[in-house]
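ESCALATION

Customer reports they have been waiting on this structure for their group meeting. Please prioritize. Original submission:
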Amino acid sequence: GGVIGAYSYAPLAARFKLRTIVLTSSLASSALLFGLAFFPPVWVMAVFGLGIGMSWGPMGPLLNTLVQTRCRPAVQGRVFGAQMALFASGPPLGMVVVGGLVEGFGVALVYPFIVAAVFLSALALLGVRQLAGLDRPPSPE
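Update from on-call: job pushed to the front of the queue and completed.
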């Protein structure tokens, strides 16, 4: 699903504003997580997983495009490095926190709360005014 979503970025970017892609990807992928929150049969989980991958897939190419078009060439390496450091360190840190919560409260209780927190975070993006700036042409530097 993620590969299909990533390949869909170019046609989506040609038709929609970048802000729309960010909001749709975030809201759709986080909403689809609710389909996994209550542990349905495996085939249902696979369908939701495919949908999550497809809806989140455009974000990778979008982030790379933003770095390449919004950052001066002299700092792109540092920006990509910081981005990769965050992407590489986030999951292990999250695993420690979530693992402790699961040990203490059980996965059936913890996972729906995590999904709700992710969805609320995606909803919060609706109020971020700076996302409107994604659709403005980059300022010459």
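Sent to customer with the following note: The chain is about 75% helix and 0% strand.
Escalation resolved.
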